[in-house]
Amino acid sequence: MYFCNSFADGVARHTPTVSILYSSTTMTSLDLPELLRQEGLCHPVTLTLAVTGQCNLNCSHCWVGAGAPASLPHLPSPAALAIIHEFAALGGRSIRFTGGELLLHPQWLTLLTSARQSRYDSISLQSNGILFTEKSAIALRELDFSGISIQISLDGATAASHDLVRGKGAFSKALRGISMLTNVGLGPRVTIFLTEMRHNLEEIPDLLELAEALGVAAVVTGALVRCGRASEQSRISPPDPEQYLRLLDRLANDQPFRRRYEEMGTTAAVEWRMNPTARQECCTFMKNPYLSPDGVLYPCTLCHAKDFSVSEVFKNGLVAAFREAVPLWSSLMQISRHRSKALPECQNCPEQAACAGGCMGRAWGSHGNLLTADDRCEVRKAVG
Ligand code: SF4
Ligand code: SF4
C-alpha cells in the first residue's frame, strides 16, 4: 500500500503555532523551514503513519510483512495523537493512516477524529476492508469531508485472484466491507487499490466494471514491489511487459473500458502512454515521509534504508526527527538529482527525460540499492 493521494477541500486550514504544543521547542521548530530551504529540501506535506504492524490477513505480497507473529505492535495512542498534532502544527497538509490493518488499532477512530480536528486538507485510510461494520461505517461518515479518502485493497476482479494472495474468503469479506461504506453514502470516498501482478493485471477492465457497479469513486493500481514478504514468494510475480502492451491495446479498442478508465482509473503504465511528459522533479522524499509503528522515520514509503532513517521519534518528537533527517535526506537528494546520469543502463535511453531512472524508493525497495534503475524499467521501455 503505497500510492500517493492528493486532494483539495473547502475546509479552511487551521495552523496552530508549534509553541502551543511544544513550547520548549518553539525555536527549534521555527528554524526548520529555513534549514530545509538552505538544504534545498521540500517542506514535509504528507505523513504516512503506520499505526500497527498487526493484521488480520497474512498476504503473500505484504511489503511490511504485517500479520506475522513477530509483527510490530500497535503504536500507543498518546504517541500517535502527539504526532498527528505535531505534524499539523508543522504545516503538514495531509496524513495517511496505514498498517498492518488500521482497523485493528483499538483507537483508530479516535486517531482519525483527532486528524479531522487538526484540519488536515486530506486524510486517507488504507485498509483491507474486512473489519468495517455498520457501526464503524456510520462513525466514519460522521467525520466525512471532501478530503477523506478510504483506500480498500482488491487484488483482482475475482475471488480466485484476490484470495490467491490474501487467503480464502478474503474477497467476499472485502466486498462486504465496501458495501458497508457505500450503504452509508461513503462510496464517493472509496478508492479500490490493486497491486499489479502477473495473475491479475488483465483483470483491470473487469475491476473497473465491478467498481462502477459497487458505486465507488476510483480504481488505482500500482506494480508489485519485490520487498518484504513479496521478496520471498515464488508464486507471485510482477506482470510481464507484454501484458501491459495487451492492456494498452485493449484500452485503445474497448470503448467501455476506455470510458471507465477515463472516469475512474489510474495505472502508471497507461498514464505514461497517455501523458508522456518530461519528469519535472526528482524524488518527493521529505515531502512524503513514512513513520513506522516503532517510531522510525523514513524519507518515503518505500525507501526503508536504515542509513537514511531516524529513530526514537516518539521520544524526541517530529521536529527533532526532521532536523536530524535534514543532512541525511539532503545527501539523498544529491543522489536522486544525479542518479539518471550515473546509471549506465539509462544512458542513451529514449525514455530518460520522462523516466530518469524511475523511482529511487522503488529501486531501493526492490533491489536494496539506490543506484539502480527501478524495477519497472523494462515495462517503461516497452510502453515508451
Ligand atoms: S492486508 Fe495489507 S497489511 Fe495486512 S498482510 Fe495484507 S498487504 Fe499486509
Ligand atoms: S526506462 Fe530504464 S533505462 Fe530508460 S531511463 Fe528509465 S530506468 Fe533508465
Word description of this protein:
With 384 residues, this protein is an alpha/beta fold. The chain has a single domain, classed as TIM Barrel. The chain has 16 helices and nine strands. The chain has helices at residues 18-21, 26-38, 77-89, 108-117, 134-142, 159-166, 170-183, 204-214, 241-253, 255-264, 268-274, 313-316, 318-342, 352-355, 360-367, 377-383; strands at 46-50, 94-98, 122-127, 148-153, 190-196, 218-223, 265-267, 290-291, 297-298. The protein has a nine-stranded mixed beta sheet with strand order 7-6-5-4-3-2-1-8-9. Helix 8 links the parallel strand 5 and strand 6. Helix 2 (26-38) packs parallel to helix 13 and helix 9 (241-253) packs parallel to helix 16 (377-383). The longest helix is centred in the C-terminal third of the chain and has 25 residues, at 318-342. The radius of gyration is 20 Å and the shape is globular. The two termini are 26 Å apart. The protein binds iron/sulfur cluster (SF4) (2 copies). One iron/sulfur cluster is lined by residues 343, 345-346, 349, 351-352, 355, 357-358, 373, 377, 380-381.
